[in-house]
């Protein structure tokens, strides 16, 4: 019986029939099929859209809301409207939010030359070093071949003598000849290596300076001839030799102290096990020291060439630029050494095997010795001809990267690159941009960019 308030026998007293379920009329339940049951939509009423409650009417003047395509939707597939969303698929509102109004993707960094003009990643450094060789192969590989040949020839001569004498000993089946060979070839092997190191000290030092000057122009997409690179670098040769001499002294003096300590321990009659333990610990400490010094001073040569600073100023400049980035630089230098060693090994090993077979199978003689020396020299020269410029390129690009990160030097490079693109060519005055006076702020005191 009605109580006069529009209630039904199923509703509690005092509640109107238009109250929400369970006290009012059912507006359709998820358990009833559309169009069936007392609360289902009438045939003239369209089924509710996704996200629309039963009973809500869309304004007749406005079109239905557009369906938001979900990430898993494929072109040509009909969207699900008025039906439950397929299981396992994300809700349309749960995807990535749309970009804010007016958002535009930032343009890529300028790349007029071998690197993008922004702080560099590891891949950018390796790729830039390779592009340095490819962008100016005549100058880069030509100079590297000269330096590599000067360093490989003394070693090749000593190894050729060794292979020839070992081959004679095997062919004559004379074990005593092997012992004599080992004693007589000691001077040939180590003498050739010492001469090679002395030659490399001169040749590689000059090469690194010239290649750094070529790199400074290649960053802007410009090329430079061998003669021009040498003309711009020869004034920095005394500084480069001074840097190498000081760095060698910093590394060799502690090594001499280590050798003296080990010799004193051996003479004192220390136990063999204790002596080996002390030797291993001392060598580990020295390797850590050498890695630290080499990493902190690796940017001295590029700074000396590009900024035209003196010996001590270049060392101090490298020390400041590498501050706070030791482990990153150390990792890149270690990776560079591994890559260069593998490339050199892959190139030189076939020539070494060929020389060994010739020395063992062919009777000895002057002609055979010359052939062995030629094979070994070719292998060493080709391998070093590629690894020398690669390593020099990595050092120069690390220098550029540290300046971009610590001094916002990429702004200087970008401004110059835009002006050069407007003019349509790279002027020789681009070399002056590497001077520290072109950097915003004092050398080493520029404000670093956030997150760099």
Automatic annotation (TrEMBL):
Which InterPro entries does the UniProt entry name for this protein?
A: GlyceroP-diester-Pdiesterase_M
Outline the extent of the Glycerophosphoryl diester phosphodiesterase membrane domain: 279-366
In which residue ranges is the amino acid composition biased (Low complexity)?
50-59, 74-83
Pro residues composition bias: which ranges?
40-49, 84-110
Query: Keywords of this protein's UniProt record, alphabetized?
Result: Membrane, Transmembrane, Transmembrane helix
* Keyword Transmembrane assigned: yes
Renumbered to this chain, region (Disordered) spans 1-114
Tell me where the transmembrane regions lie.
140-161, 194-216, 237-266, 272-305, 326-347, 353-378
Q: What is this protein called?
A: Glycerophosphoryl diester phosphodiesterase membrane domain-containing protein
Species name for this entry? Answer: Streptosporangium jomthongense
Q: Lineage of the source organism?
A: Bacteria, Bacillati, Actinomycetota, Actinomycetes, Streptosporangiales
């Amino acid at each position: 019986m009605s109580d006069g308030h529009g209630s039904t026998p199923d509703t509690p007293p005092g509640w109107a029939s238009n109250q929400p379920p369970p006290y009012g009329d059912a507006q359709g339940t998820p358990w009833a099929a559309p169009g069936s049951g007392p609360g289902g939509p009438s045939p003239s009423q369209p089924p509710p859209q996704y996200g629309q409650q039963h009973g809500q009417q869309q304004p007749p003047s406005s079109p239905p809301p557009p369906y938001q395509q979900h990430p898993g939707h494929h072109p040509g597939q009909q969207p699900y409207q008025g039906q439950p969303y397929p299981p396992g698929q994300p809700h349309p509102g749960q995807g990535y939010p749309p970009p804010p109004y007016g958002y535009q993707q930032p343009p890529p960094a300028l790349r007029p030359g071998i690197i993008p003009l922004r702080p560099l990643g590891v891949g950018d450094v390796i790729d830039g070093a390779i592009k340095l060789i490819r962008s100016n192969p005549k100058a880069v590989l030509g100079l590297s071949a000269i330096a590599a040949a000067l360093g490989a020839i003394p070693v090749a001569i000593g190894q050729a003598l060794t292979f020839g004498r070992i081959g004679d000993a095997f062919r004559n089946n004379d074990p005593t000849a092997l012992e004599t060979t080992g004693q007589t070839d000691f001077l040939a092997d180590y003498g050739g290596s010492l001469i090679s190191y002395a030659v490399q000290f001169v040749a590689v030092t000059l090469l690194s300076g010239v290649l750094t000057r070529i790199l400074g122009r290649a960053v802007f997409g410009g090329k430079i001839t061998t003669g021009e690179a040498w003309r711009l670098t020869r004034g920095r040769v005394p500084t480069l030799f001074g840097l190498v001499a000081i760095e060698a002294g910093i590394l060799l003096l502690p090594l001499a102290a280590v050798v003296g300590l080990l010799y004193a321990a051996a003479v004192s009659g220390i136990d063999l096990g204790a002596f080996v333990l002390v030797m291993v610990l001392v060598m580990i400490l020295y390797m850590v020291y050498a890695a630290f010094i080499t990493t902190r001073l690796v940017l001295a040569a590029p700074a000396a060439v590009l900024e035209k600073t003196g010996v001590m100023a270049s060392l101090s400049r490298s020390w400041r630029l590498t501050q706070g980035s030791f482990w990153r630089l150390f990792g890149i230098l270690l990776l560079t050494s591994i890559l260069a060693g593998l490339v050199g090994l892959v190139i030189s090993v076939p020539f070494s095997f060929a020389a060994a077979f010739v020395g063992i199978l062919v009777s000895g003689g002057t002609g055979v010795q010359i052939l062995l020396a030629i094979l070994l020299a070719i292998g060493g020269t080709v391998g070093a001809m590629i690894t020398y410029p690669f390593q020099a390129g990595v050092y120069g690009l690390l220098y550029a990267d540290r300046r971009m990160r610590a001094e916002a030097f990429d702004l200087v490079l970008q401004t110059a690159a835009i002006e050069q693109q407007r003019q349509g060519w790279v002027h020789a005055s681009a070399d002056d941009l590497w001077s520290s006076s072109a950097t915003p702020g004092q050398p080493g005191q520029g404000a670093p960019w956030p997150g760099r």
